[in-house]
Structure formats: C-alpha cells, structure tokens
C-alpha cells in the first residue's frame, strides 16, 4: 500500500510539472538582425550551430537557459554559439543565465569589450552572472575550450564555468580578456591539452582577477601520454596579470615523456612581463607517472621566459602544494623572474621543496616549513649575479636547507632552525660565494661554519648577531598548547629575536587553517593582541577542537606568517568513555549511582552524545549545571519532582529506542 501511495504521488508530481513547463524553442543557423532571447521563450535548444553575424547583437536576458548540447535518442550534437557580432549575456545574482554543454566562440570579428577609465564595463561582448556547465560526455573535433576567444576581447565576470570533461574552461587565442570574480572549477583537459581552468596563448592583454580556480585537472592518472601543464592556468605570451585569485586543488599529470610538465596551479612558458601577485596558491599538485620526467612546480612552473620585462611573482601565499618532482612551491627553469615578498610555506617536493630555481631574483620572502623528499628543502638555486637576499628561511625539513650553485649575491638572509644536516651547501663556478651579513641563528663563529657545506668557499664573515629586520618577520616557533582547566588553554612559545619586535597575536578557531576567525573566548575574538610575551591563556571555550596559531609583529606593523598550527580540545576528559564527572550529578542524586536509570544515561552519554560536537556540548552543559540543580533539589522537593519527571520522560524515549 505504501509503495502504491509513493508511486501515485510521483506520477501526480510528474503530471503537474508537465503541464507547467514552458515549451522549449529550437534555434539554429545564422542570426542576421538584432535578437533577444527572453525568459518567456526559455529554454532555447540549439538544434544546430548558431552564428551571430557581424553587425548583429544577440541579447540574452536574466534567467534564460540555453542548451548547446542537442540530445536526441540516436545521437548527440555539441553545437556552437559563434559570435561574429556582439553577445550581451548579462544575468543577475538572483537570475543567472544557464548554458549547458557545447561551445561559445568569440571570433576576431566580434565586438571587443570596452571599459571606462575606472575599469567598468561599457560595451561589447560580455558574459556576466552566467552558469556554464560544459559537460558534454563527448567532444567535437577541433574544440577543447568551453569558451573560446579568438583574437578578440571579452569581459567574463561573476560566472560559474565548470565541468568541461574534455577541455579547459576558457581558452584565449591571440586575444585579450578581462576575467574577474568567477568560479572556474572541475574542468578536465585531457592528454595534450594544457590549462585545466584557463588557457592563454600569445595573448595581448589578459587580466585574471578575483577568481576561484579550483579542482581543474590536466591529463589523466593512468594515461602515460599525458603532458600536463597548468592545472589551474596555462600562459604563453605577454601582458597577462594574475592577481587576487584563489588557485587551489588543481592537478596536472605527466606521462612517460613529459620532461617539463607540471605547474599544478600556474604554468608559464615563453611568457614575458607576466605578473602573478596577491594570489593564494595552495594545495595544487603536479604528478608524474614514471621516471621523474615531469611533475614539477606544484604551485607555479615558469620556463624559457626572457625579455625586457621580467616575470613578477610577488605578494602571494604559496602553501601546501605538492610536486612529485622538483619545486613543490615554485619551479623556475631558464627564466628572467623576480620572486619577491611571497609566503612560501609547507610545500612538498623532491628537491627544492620551497623554490627550485635555475636563475632568478629571490628577495624578501618567507620560506618556511617546506619538506624535501630527497634534499634541499627550502631552495635549490643555480645562477649567478642575481639578488638572493633579505629572505627569512626557517623551519624547513630536508637533507640541506639551501643549495647554491653559481654566484648570486647571498646577503642579509635569516637562516635558522631548519631540520637539516647543513643550512647551506655551495658549489662555486669560480670564486667564493658572497654570503656576508646573514643571520645563522647564533653569533658563535665555531657554530656557523659547521652549518655550511664547503664553508671554505663561502665568505660568510661578517655575519649578523641578530635577525635582519628588513627581512620578513620570522614566524614564531615551538608553540605548545595544553589544557589548563575545563574550557581553558595555556599557550607557550619561543620568543623571536628581532630587535624591532613589538609583540604577538594569538589566533584561534574551530576550523583548521587561516584566517582563524574564532569567537567566544573570554579574552576576545581572534586575533588577540597579547603584547610582547611568550605565554597566554584562553578561557571560556566550548567543547570543540580548537586550532591555535600565533604571529609576531614588528614596531612598523609588519606581521610574520603563522606559526605551526596546534589543535586541542579544552575538555579532553569529556571526549572519552571512561570519565565520570566528580561534581554532584543530577541523575545520581535522584536514582543512585549504580541504578539502572543512571547506567542507561551514562551509556547514552558515552556511546551517543560524546561522538558528535553537539552531543559534547550537551555533556558540558549538563555537568556545568548539575551542581546547582542538585543544590536546589535538596532545598525544594517540588523542584526535585519536576526534574525527576523531566528525566523520566527522557528515559522513556531512550528505552523506546533501545527496544
């Protein structure tokens, strides 16, 4: 009977939907005059390619759905919306325009997007507030990008471009574009197609700003012919600016023959004047199949880029990226690059886990907590006459923290507390390495030379007796967090040694990783400015796991990167099944310590409530209020009867569930 009711309901809903759905409009062929696809005619099904002719405008209104993939019982066509004129597809935040499958092509005849002096869109081809699910389940020969820009200029803003399972999200070929505030995700460029999220070839001016580019893939894990380059973005050409984006969890796979493949986040090849700044580039991966031929540059890969304008990698957070081969954070090969003011932390690679560079300028970076699977955990460097200075290189883990071949100007660096048998290794190409005025974590000469491989060829004197204050503030070390009492944590750490140190900030949250925006502690919301101390207490915390980190700051307001994160529950005794509160217990006062009712409540506490965050909070509140309830019950029998009646109701529910 129940199945029949469900089936009848489903049939009724299907009938209701069938009589309220608007008939689709089939479209195909050339558009010769200005046309509007409005909401009343939606959805629009492309039964053939559509060509917007030169001098003609197609306007798509908010909320319209356009199906470029034409599905029939015996065949599926992946149709094109080709723009030789002007396309204005502007949805709104509440009424997005929906594109399904197929391809959108802006030809060299299309009307270029134009902007006012403040960078605001004025006219021309635009895609704004659209959702484009490019999943085709197949492909059309000769096309690999869901959105193709050929020698034209397009404005793409506040769009979701995702799930192209046979190519990248956006392909720019000898054109220009302004790509802002989009989500570009889960596109898969197979085998020899580069740039999982965005592909840029010989571009003129491309701005990629404010986007989230995530979970795109180039190549395949089991395809030995994969030549994966640029999981998030691939670039060749000039004039590309990538700024204020989040590039995360993008992947490249390299097969047997991919010697210079990788760039899990970004890959730049034969590019000049490329600017990569103010981005968060994290948790991207560059894999290889065998022989360690490819899989380089987990975060960024740059090669063969020389010219009047160097490439700039500046003010980025490059963290937790992985390269099966060299350069967990950054890989540079034969390029004129400046790597400046970046935070390069917790990346993993075979060699040069932080930076693997065959010639570039490296200055004012924080390079910390990177892990090398073989050697050279912080930096592998091969080059001469470049500036390698004012960096803070600490707490990296590998056989040797820094390896240098060549003769860069290696000065005013802070090098300390790396887990390595040597802080610096050097093989010269004629002459000693100029390593004057660096801080080595000590002022003892007999200790410094022992930190350097081939110290006889390194000119490390004079050295600094305290950290260089023009380098980035060193992240605090040796943070320890313990439970001091229920709901309270005690923090201690080692004090920084910079002469201009101003103090520390304590960060806490119930979610791991920055920015740690926790609330509720008695001492204030995160972050808490605690002054120039080496310990601090947090109290009035909930029954949850907390993630704690600290930063140091100098008198000019410059802050370090976060310390290593610690995690802890401020109520550890309530997360086990064996702890019974020593405080007066309400149920024990009513039923007795060994009664059936008390044992049943203990069972629910230990086997049910303690398994979830919400349940743990209930336990905490129960034991917090029990002493006051017990005290009140002793003074007021009527109150005690009321409490007992309430618990009896709970016990009845529990017994019903158990039975």
Identify the notable features of this structure and list them briefly:
flat; 63 strands; 14-stranded parallel sheet; mainly beta; 29-stranded parallel sheet; Immunoglobulin-like
What's this, in brief?
It is built from six helices and 63 strands. With 659 residues, the chain is mainly beta.
Description:
Helix content is 13%, strand content 40%. Among the domains are: 477-570, Sandwich (Immunoglobulin-like); 575-658, no CATH class. Helix 5 packs antiparallel against helix 6. The strands form nine sheets. The chain has a 29-stranded parallel beta sheet that branches. A 14-stranded parallel beta sheet has the order 2-4-9-14-17-20-24-28-32-36-40-44-48-51, with no helix packed on it.
Query: Which CATH top level class of the domain at 477-570 fits?
Result: Mainly Beta
The CATH topology name of the domain at 477-570 reads Immunoglobulin-like
CATH architecture of the domain at 477-570: Sandwich
- Major sheet attributes: 29 strands, parallel
Which word captures the global form? flat
Mean pLDDT: 88
Q: Cα-atom Rg, whole angstroms?
A: 31 Å
Helix percentage range = 10-25%
Q: How much of the sequence is in beta strands?
A: 35-45%
* Poorly predicted parts: 1-21, 575-582
Q: How many strands?
A: 63
Structural class: mainly beta
Superfamily at the CATH H level of the domain at 477-570? Immunoglobulins
Helix segment tally: 6
Termini Cα gap: 26 Å
